[in-house]
């Protein structure tokens, strides 16, 4: 086992490596993938939570529609807030970059099917 003299007793060498900021490519890729994924989730949630009848006054006729619309507004608001809260470490950007490549086609397919 290798011991590094510059580390505190509770730190490891791996923890010291994760403090490095992400590269520009990883940062842009992570932000782009995360943003597009959250936007698609907002679109899906807004479509699913919208009233079944096109009149907006129909949400007062059935309590289920009112509850669904209110929950949809809350979830969409939560997604919008999370758009502006960026991850704190380089690993999160890397994960979002790779997961964006995997999840974006699936999310767009789900949005197409829901629409």
Folded structure, characterized:
By secondary structure, the chain is mainly alpha-helical. The chain has a domain at 36-114. It is 67% helix and 0% strand. The protein is built from four helices and no strands. The longest helix is centred in the N-terminal third of the chain and has 26 residues, at 24-49. It is elongated and about 65 Å long. The termini are far apart. Keywords: Membrane, Transmembrane, Transmembrane helix. The chain crosses the membrane at residues 26-46, 66-87, 93-114.
Calculate the terminal CA-CA distance, rounded to whole Å. Answer: 57 Å
N-to-C order of helices and strands: HHHH
Number of strands: 0
Name the beta content range.
under 5%
Helix content: 55-70%
Question: Brief overview, please?
Answer:
The chain crosses the membrane at residues 26-46, 66-87, 93-114. The protein has helices at residues 13-17, 24-49, 63-83, 90-114.
